[in-house]
Amino acid sequence: MIYTLSKIIITALIIVTVSEVSKRNSLFGALFASLPLTSVLAMVWLYSETKEVDKVADLANSIFWLVIPSLVFFISLPILLKKGLNFYLSMGLSITMTVVCYVGLITLLTRLGIKL
């Protein structure tokens, strides 16, 4: 229980830190947010709990493939906002486009025999 609470607190601290840093300097906030901290922490926790390097390798491989469609979000959101769309509408459309890209990529990779 303490271990799970520690993981929650560490994750929350990362999100709050990115938010606070971004208020002062968007470049540093973006730099901190772009670091694969969540992925690294997930891999460390997965390994420390299972000691199975194959699971860590599978997770890293899946993360690699799923980063590609996530880029759609970071491309579409600023474009929509600069076009004057409402923040929440832009966010919703960007998330929707990203989900569509996730489904498309997962479908394609499955057909190509690439296991996620």
Describe this structure in words.
The protein has 116 residues and is mainly α. It has two domains: 35 residues; 80 residues, no CATH class. The longest helix is centred in the middle third of the chain and has 30 residues. The radius of gyration is 17 Å and the shape is flat. The two termini are 29 Å apart.
Strand content: under 5%
What is the global morphology? flat
**What composes the largest sheet?**
none
Number of domains: 2
If you compute it from the alpha carbons, what radius of gyration comes out, rounded to the nearest whole angstrom? 17 Å
* H-E order: HHHHH
Compose a concise summary of this entry.
The chain has 116 residues and is mostly helical.
Summarize the helices and strands and which ones pair or pack:
Layout: H1 2-24, H2 26-34, H3 37-50, H4 53-82, H5 87-111
Helix pairs in contact: 1-2, 3-4, 4-5
